[in-house]
């Protein structure tokens, strides 16, 4: 009977060691699963952070654009020159369409010489001084429709007294 008890003990010990080995194997498998899970979570966090950064950058750009539009609106409203109802039509283009404003002779001269400019604000055309139009153009060029190069008249022209004959042939 002694042999029989020993066989039972051996079987029991083998079973216990087998169970211990399986537990160790499971622990290692759990450990590898856990590290893989942690790596995937880390990757997801990095992707989310990158996505959040891109979204914040887009929001900042939108806020900057709105701020610039507000600045432009304020500049136009503060510096617009009241249009004098005149009898002279000034023609200009707005998105491939020819438009016209009726203005006075002095405003027409100033627009032609580049002292004044035409800007568009909410489907309305406003006349502003040239320095304001340059500042608006720096922020957003789509608002400025007409801004001619400034031409100053030459008062001390040495040849102003000489007339050019009409029949002069070169």
Summarize the structure in words.
- This protein is α+β, with helices and mostly antiparallel strands.
- It is 57% helix and 17% strand.
- The chain is built from 3 helices and 5 strands; from the N terminus they run H-E-E-H-E-E-H-E.
- The strands form 2 sheets. The chain has a 3-stranded antiparallel beta sheet. Strands 1-2 form a two-stranded antiparallel sheet.
- A hairpin with a 2-residue loop joins strand 3 (116-121) and strand 4.
Summary tags:
5 strands, 170 residues, two-stranded antiparallel ribbon, DUF2058 domain-containing protein, single chain, alpha+beta
Give the SSE layout.
Elements: H1 2-79, E1 88-94, E2 97-103, H2 105-113, E3 116-121, E4 124-129, H3 130-139, E5 144-146
Antiparallel strand pairs: 1-2, 3-4, 3-5
Content of β-strand: 15-25%
Across the major sheet, the strand order is: 4-3-5
N→C terminal distance: 142 Å
Radius of gyration, in angstroms, nearest whole number: 41 Å
Helix content class: 55-70%
* Residue-averaged pLDDT: 81
Class inferred from helices and paired strands: alpha+beta
Stretches with pLDDT under 50, minimum 5 residues:
none
- The geometry reads as rod-shaped
Total E-strand runs: 5
Order of helical and strand elements = HEEHEEHE
Number of helices: 3
How many strands, which pairing sense, and closed or not: the largest β-sheet?
A: 3 strands, antiparallel
Region (Disordered): 23-45
Protein name: DUF2058 domain-containing protein
InterPro entries: DUF2058
Biased composition (Basic and acidic residues): 34-45
